[in-house]
Design a protein that fits this description.
With 199 residues, the protein is α+β, with helices and mostly antiparallel strands. It folds into two domains: 71 residues, Glutaredoxin, CATH 3.40.30; 107 residues, Glutathione S-transferase Yfyf (Class Pi), Chain A, domain 2. 52% of the residues lie in helices and 7% in strands. The protein has a four-stranded mixed sheet. α1 runs antiparallel to α6, α4 packs antiparallel against α5 and α4 runs parallel beside α6. It is globular, with a radius of gyration of 17 Å. The protein starts with 5 loop residues before the first strand and ends in a 12-residue tail after the last helix. The model has no long low-confidence stretch (mean pLDDT 96).
């Protein structure tokens, strides 16, 4: 029996969530090592000194240190459709930058109010709204890498002020997000684990 890969992960991290969802979708078994970011295990730091999750250590010694590298490693060809790369670029760039400044204003020395960054994200969501009015998922009628890559970040934004988010005129985004977080793929990727220690 081959040795399963080892995934260093943190339950609430959106990058780790999308990696776990992709591994789950691919049916890949792995050893789950739950990381507490203020107490990172030396085993993870040895193979990935940058100290962020997710990190996937493969049996052959290869280490994948970025969530998209993990997703691409395990994604079937039919997942890589449409303009998913452009969608991920916006998500991991402008969307994430403004989300962080909205959700964690104390971490940044910014002149703008949190609401200003919230509104920048809203502009992107309105583009998503139009797109999801044309198809069930971002790149057509079937789930693809784009949906799994974006959903944890849209969820994080929505949960920052759920009442406000639910009050926006984004019915297609809200329906898509609701379906994503209610899916077996998401719920089974969100199990709770104790902090991993070598002992």
């Amino acid at each position: 029996m081959s040795t399963p890969p080892i995934l260093y992960t943190f339950r609430r991290c959106p990058y780790a969530i999308r990696a776990r969802m992709a591994l789950k979708h691919a049916g890949i078994e792995y050893e789950h090592r739950e990381v507490v970011l203020r107490d990172r295990p030396p085993q993870m730091m040895e193979i990935s000194p940058k100290g962020t999750v997710p990190v996937l250590a493969l049996a052959d010694g290869e280490v994948l240190e970025e969530s998209m590298d993990i997703m691409l490693w395990c994604s079937p060809p039919e997942w890589l459709v449409g303009d998913w790369q452009a969608l991920v670029e916006v998500n991991d760039g402008r969307f994430k930058e403004n989300l962080d400044r909205y959700k964690y204003p104390n971490r940044f020395e910014e002149e703008e109010s949190p609401e200003a960054y919230r509104d920048e994200v809203l502009k992107i969501l309105r583009q998503y709204e139009r797109r999801l009015g044309e198809s069930r998922y971002f790149c057509g009628p079937e789930l693809s890498i784009a949906d799994v890559a974006l959903a944890p970040f849209v969820r994080q934004f929505a949960n920052t002020d759920r009442a406000w988010f639910d009050g926006q005129e984004l019915p297609n985004v809200q329906k898509w997000l609701g379906g994503m977080v209610a899916s077996e793929l998401f719920t089974e990727s969100m199990g709770k684990f104790e902090q991993w220690r070598e002992s």
